Model the fold of this input.
Amino acid sequence: TWANPTSKQQALAYLDWAEYSADFYRRVFLKYKSYMPGITVPYVINPNAVYGYYDYLSDLSGVEHWLSRINPELMGGAGAVHGYTNWVGTPAYENTPYARYVFTATRYRGPNLEDNWAYSKNDPLNNNERYKFTTPSYFASMLFTAFGATGINVYTAVSTDNWTSELDSANTPPHPPDAPIAPDGTYRNKYWTAQQLGLFFADEGKYLVRAEFRQSKIAWGIYPPYAWADAWNTDPAKWRNAGFYDVPRSGYYGVDGFQYMLKKKDTEFTQVNIKDTPLSELQKYKIIFLAAYDWMDR
Done:
């Protein structure tokens, strides 16, 4: 717990603990992986999309909490595949879900493992009836693809009517209500678009996975210790008491406005972990923007 450090050295102990916790998670993952030798399918980690972002500010530190949880460079070294989920709203119609999708996709390339093609009445977070129709799902799938997704999971492709109160007492069958294939096996209107999407990826998927994204070579630099710091405590006075001039942050403020500015200029960007990425990789970018504070390790 936070014990009100009165010096930078005392405060940095919290960042050491955050770094240790991430590595501890990596070692636990490797331990579980060792219990299943010979498994050849990918081990996938799929966190939710970023929150506390753009106009979705119920938690001003949501970006920092999210960046603290997302460790694709570290976990990738342990053999885990980075992926992500949906459940942010409808980026085809709303600016904030659009911004959250792009920020999530640009953090690190991976598959979208829960791209909403079926949930309208019982969408886990949004209850968004726009998903009765094809356009929101198709737009989201192509948006993720445009920003480097390495795969799309149509979630779910089939509805079921075998959905009892023992499984879920809050919703009535079919579950989910608007999948491309109905419970009786008939095709709904969404099916034909999903099928065409599948045919497209069958032909072009291998090239999309190999493609060099971010031709503009513009990046937002993530310095994880700043995110760890804010995830510990968000009170500026507490950090000033420890000798800092403000709460360290890696994303908020800054990255949402940065993303919006580039969108207005029709310019792409990516994100790069400046702490753990080799210098040879960092030098591939023409320019890296970041939130700067009064300390940084070498």
Notes: Residues 83-213 form one domain. The radius of gyration is 21 Å. The longest strand covers residues 111-116. Strands lie at 43-45, 80-82, 84-85, 111-116, 151-155, 218-222, 270-273, 287-289.
